[in-house]
Amino acid sequence: MRLQATGLGVRLRRAEVLRGIDLHLEAGEWLGVIGPNGAGKSTLLKALAGVLRHTGSLVIGSGSRATQIALMPQTPLLPEGMSVVEYVLLGRTAHLGWLRGETRRDRRIAAEVIGRLRLEEFADRPVTSLSGGEAQRAVVARALAQQTQILLLDEPTSALDLGHQAEVLSVVDELRRQDGISVIAAMHDLGSAARYADRLQLLAAGSTEAVGNPTQVLEPDVLSRVYRTPLDVHQLDGELVVLPRRTATTGRNNP
Ligand SMILES: Nc1ncnc2c1ncn2[C@@H]1O[C@H](COP(=O)(O)OP(=O)(O)OP(=O)(O)O)[C@@H](O)[C@H]1O
Q: Which residues form the ABC transporter domain (predicted)?
């Protein structure tokens, strides 16, 4: 077991934003956290990463939280005047001793993740000059440079085009298969969540609505209730696709 949370709760400005969340993560497992806007997905990731205070119990494998868990936030701060390579090197901070500069090994790791995310041509550009999608890949690269056992990704592909979405998710998937890294990813695209995750945890209004493998969780009645719109789940070439239910007025031949 890499991580186990029991009865996790978070209050923000007196509002109970998360309550009674039980969650576990095995070595090499990908857990997809899904749910509508405001369900508590980002709050859950921040609580697990130690950025937000929580109640309940959280047990993480050996080592400090900083060396065990890397969080890729949804809206990261990109520092002015910092190149992409310097920004990715920030991911090595947890490994640097106080006042110790980065080593050749840190630089090699940064160069490796920059290559993996195809950011070589941007390496010396100011990170603030990147497009939204390029910046998102730099943020993923910084999280990967931490070389932690657990990666928490908050909407890792929201700014990416289809090609880069597939590229970023498959790089993470490769790390999981090769190095046994465990992943918790909050994702809005339910098709991608079903494709990459071993299990899905569906949140609604701060609680868990369903947890299980993608076929168990992506169930039309549950999704329609939670997302407050009629949804259907289709199988397409062995993949699950969630689409708004067609009604008489949404038919293509209807005016
Ligand atoms: N500082 C805060 N004070 C009060 N409420 C907050 C605060 N931050 C977040 N919330 C509320 O907590 C709830 C959960 O927010 P969270 O960002 O975790 O949702 P989410 O599932 O990640 O949503 P989205 O899909 O829109 O990113 C929301 O209702 C949000 O308004």
A: 3-230
Nearest CA to ligand 1 atom 18: 40
Tokens of 199: 């299990």
41: left (phi over 0), alpha (psi -120 to 50) or beta: alpha
ipTM computed for the complex: 0.96
Out of 3.40.50.300, 1.10.472.10, 3.40.1370.10, 2.40.110.10, which CATH number does the structure's domain 1-61+149-218 have? 3.40.50.300
What pLDDT score was predicted for residue 171?
85
Indicate the pTM of the whole model. 0.91
Pocket of ligand 1 (CB under 6 A): 12-13, 15, 17, 35, 37-43
Residue nearest to atom 29 of ligand 1 (CA): 38
CA-to-CA distance for 53 and 44, rounded, in angstroms?
10
- 188 Cα nearest atom in ligand 1: 25
